[in-house]
From TrEMBL:
It comes from the Bacteria. This is Acyltransferase. It holds the Pfam family Hexapep. Keywords: Acyltransferase, Repeat, Transferase. One of its GO terms (molecular function) is acyltransferase activity. InterPro entries: Hexapep (IPR001451), Hexapep_transf_CS (IPR018357), Hexapeptide_acetyltransf (IPR051159), Trimer_LpxA-like_sf (IPR011004). Coiled coil: none annotated. Belongs to the transferase hexapeptide repeat family.
Length: 247
């Protein structure tokens, strides 16, 4: 009896491994087939979707795409929401409402809500679950539910080369300069100058850079050593495989 039980357990484990492999391969195929690109836009008809840009599957809520422009080589993670206008089916005029520059990255679960114009500069990277919105609830009338009051809208502009950490929130009217770092969980409103680091809720400037003084306060860690020019990917892989004794 124990021998038969072991044989049955081995057979069950083998079947499970087989089924798991088939499910994983099937899901990889679905992800590839369901991704949105310029060559394979599916049901979505963006105003522009650049070369090399890819929206991972499954997508989040997407509507108003005739007023959404996506630059070249953008990476849009899974379950990312991109909306132009307050609801589907509106005529928003002749100009784009939501614009992503070249090389923008939106991490998994992020939301970009553009009821009025939102512009994200080239090579801006967003971690997962970042929330960028041009609209905020109003509560002027104390006798009406907040959700039933007409919202306030202000354009949002995020400069090129920025980094927005996980869970960051960018509120209506925010204007971020070039190469701004937004710490994880920060809530940003108002103007942020070039080369600044902001953190907190509400976010405040915690570090700045200029040509004369460099970073103030000074950085506490040394700058990373760049990869030397001419090093090939194969050489990097070879180095990664070395043991500590071999380095």
């Amino acid at each position: 009896m124990p021998k038969n039980r072991n044989t049955f357990s081995s057979l069950t484990a083998w079947r499970r491994r087989l089924a798991a492999g088939a499910v994983q391969r099937g899901w990889q195929w679905v992800q590839q087939a369901g991704a949105i690109t310029a060559e394979h836009p599916g049901r979505l008809r963006f105003r522009r979707i650049g070369s090399g840009t890819r929206l991972a599957f499954p997508q989040g809520t997407v509507f108003g795409e005739p007023w959404i422009e996506l630059g070249d080589h953008c990476i849009i993670g899974e379950q990312v929401t991109l909306t132009a206008g307050m609801m589907p089916g509106l005529d928003l005029g002749s100009e784009p409402i939501l614009t992503l520059g070249d090389g923008v990255v939106l991490g998994r679960g992020s939301h970009v809500i553009a009821d009025t114009t939102v512009a994200i500069g080239s090579n801006t990277y967003c971690g997962p679950y970042v929330y960028i919105t041009s609209t905020n609830h109003s509560y002027d009338d104390p006798h009406q539910p907040v959700g039933k009051q007409w919202p306030r809208m202000e354009p949002v502009e995020i400069g090129p080369g920025c980094w927005l950490g996980t869970g960051a929130v960018v509120l209506p009217g925010a204007r971020l300069g070039r190469n701004v770092v937004v710490a994880a969980g920060a809530v940003v409103r108002g103007e942020v100058p070039d080369h600044a680091v902001v953190a907190g809720a509400p976010a405040r400037i915690v570090r700045t850079w200029d040509h004369e003084n460099g970073w103030q306060p000074p950085l506490r860690t040394p700058a990373p050593v760049p990869i030397p020019e001419g090093v090939t990917p194969e050489q990097l892989l070879a180095v990664a495989e070395l043991t500590p004794d071999e380095v």
